[in-house]
From TrEMBL:
SUPFAM superfamilies membership: Cytidine deaminase-like (SSF53927)
GO cellular component: cytosol
Name of this protein: Cytidine deaminase
Swiss-Prot/TrEMBL keywords: Hydrolase, Metal-binding, Zinc
Gene from which this protein is expressed: zgc:103586
PANTHER family, per database record: CYTIDINE DEAMINASE (PTHR11644:SF26)
NCBIfam families in alphabetical order: cyt_deam_tetra, PRK05578.1
Function per UniProt: This enzyme scavenges exogenous and endogenous cytidine and 2'-deoxycytidine for UMP synthesis.
UniProt source species: Gymnodraco acuticeps
GO biological process entries: nucleobase-containing small molecule metabolic process; pyrimidine-containing compound metabolic process
Residues holding substrate: N44, V45, E46, N47, A48, S49, Y50
Residues annotated as binding Zn(2+): C55, C89, C92
Record carries keyword Zinc: yes
GO molecular function: cytidine deaminase activity; identical protein binding; zinc ion binding
Amino acid sequence: MSDKVKELISKCLQARDMAYCPYSRFPVAAAVLTADGAIITGCNVENASYGLTVCAERTAIQRAVVEGYRKFTAIAVTCDIKDRFVGPCGACRQVLMEFGSDWIVYLTKPDGSYKETSLLELLPLAFSPAHLAKN
Ligand code: THU
């Protein structure tokens, strides 16, 4: 594992402690790696009006965009489930696709072990910004 991936995983695991999930009690965290090596984290932020909950992956992306980043190479995602690798929800896959299809995705268990996959694998035949380009 490269030092950068180690750092990405470690920051992702730390961010899980920040999850605001009083309703589900299901903490989730994400950490995105930008093309120039910065790491931005996110956690789920729930709401008493349940549907307004924002997933960890999306809080990470939104923070990153506000910080001026739009090029990403990888994302790590983690939750409390110890016995299997858990992927991002469908909505978050689409939000990641907005910023390119060639993301590496590290599905990470609480002990830091991970399964490496890709956004293309998680969201095949996706709708993407390219489809909006005029013919
Ligand atoms: N959640 C995420 O943060 N990311 C996902 O990809 C799936 C679900 C959150 C939303 C909610 O706060 C909790 O997990 C239970 O659904």
